[in-house]
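From the pipeline queue, job 12 of 40. The input is one protein chain; the requested action is below.

Action: predict structure.
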Amino acid sequence: MTLDYFYGQTGELFSFYRIPKALFQEPRFQSLSTDAKILYGILLDRMSLSVKNGWLDEQNRVFIIFTIEDVKRALCCADNKATKLLRELEKFGLIERKRRGLGKPSLVYVKNFSAESSKSIFQNRDFHDSGGFKIACQDPSKSRCNKTKENDTEMSETDPFYSEEAEGMSKRTRLEEYFSQALEVELLLRLCPDDEDTIYQIVDLLVDTCATNCKLLRIAGDDKPAEVVRSRFMKLNADHIRFVLKCLAENSSPIRNMKQYLLASLYNAPTTMQLSYQNQTNHDLAMRR
């Protein structure tokens, strides 16, 4: 294939992604991969579309919707690579993802690392990662978000994870931090990179369920006391989540209600996991005889 030369102003016929020179020139970004820098430029380009659509939160901050599938299509890469690049941008504080409820894509905030904001970007990143802010928008299909508040619950002295350090934090925020540690979410993401969205959906479901004010919760067709459900969910660990992911992957039947399926699987995981593994062990031993 023989390509033609550029003549005169023909170079201006193309549209371009803008990648800040600072990503290549400043020492703090030297270890950021070239692919991640390119992805940042693509996300910046998408920002202009969000501005036109009025995708702003209650603090007038622009967000975009850019899923792992979008990254795969933009960079022609696999799931693992797309997931790794998004985490890399998060690590450097260049983007921030706000996970939402079941079936909803994350909101992505492309961060401004200009000289004015660079002083505080790394100081603030840990706070934002913990979910310490509110998003007014629940449906980005609307041109402007409604200013709604989260259903925060007052802190109770009977909370199993209450501490003076947590005073002033919403119950939902404390639950998010609790499950992030108890379930070793970062470890799960490394072990099961293909299940990233499902892992975050499970965490969201656990938080929603434990934060509810309902007295009874429906699990596998039965109404169970909310305190009993909450107590069992608070005892889950990373092994239980991996077991639920395994069961979900092996299930070949259509799931009509994913929320109820996950609730039942999570509730029963502590008892069924050991029985399942014991049954598999017995089967393997029998096959060797």
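Job complete. Confidence is low (pLDDT under 50) at residues 115-122, 125-138, 141-169.
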